[in-house]
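Reviewers of the previous submission asked for a worked example of the structure-prediction workflow described in the proposal, so we include one complete record here. The input consisted solely of the amino acid sequence. No template or homolog information was supplied to the procedure at any stage.
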Amino acid sequence: MLLVAVTALCGRLAWVRAETGEAGLTPSPAPPKVHLADRDYLRATGGLPLPATAREVGTTSGGGAILSEPMPRVPDAVPVVVWVRDGAAVAQYSLSGGP
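From that input alone, the workflow returned the following C-alpha cells.
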C-alpha cells in the first residue's frame, strides 16, 4: 500500500513539473510555463501591459485565464505573446521554441 502511495505521489510531482515547471503537488494559476495550441510559453519578467483587445483563449492547469490578442485567420497561427490572469494579477508569457 505504501508503495502505491509513493508511486502516485511521485507521478503527481512529475506531472506538475512537466506541465508547469513548478515543484509541488498542485499547479499555481500563473505557473512559470503554460501550454497553448501545442506550444510552450515561458513567463517573462516585466513585459507589455494587457491589451484592451485581449480575449480568453484557454486556462492554465491551475485555473488561471490565458488571454491573447485576436489572431489572423492563418493556418497554424499562434500568438507570440500571451497573458495569464490570476484574479487581479496579470503575467506576460512569451513563445518558447520553434515550430
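The chain has one helix and six strands. We consider this example representative of the routine output the project will generate in years two and three.
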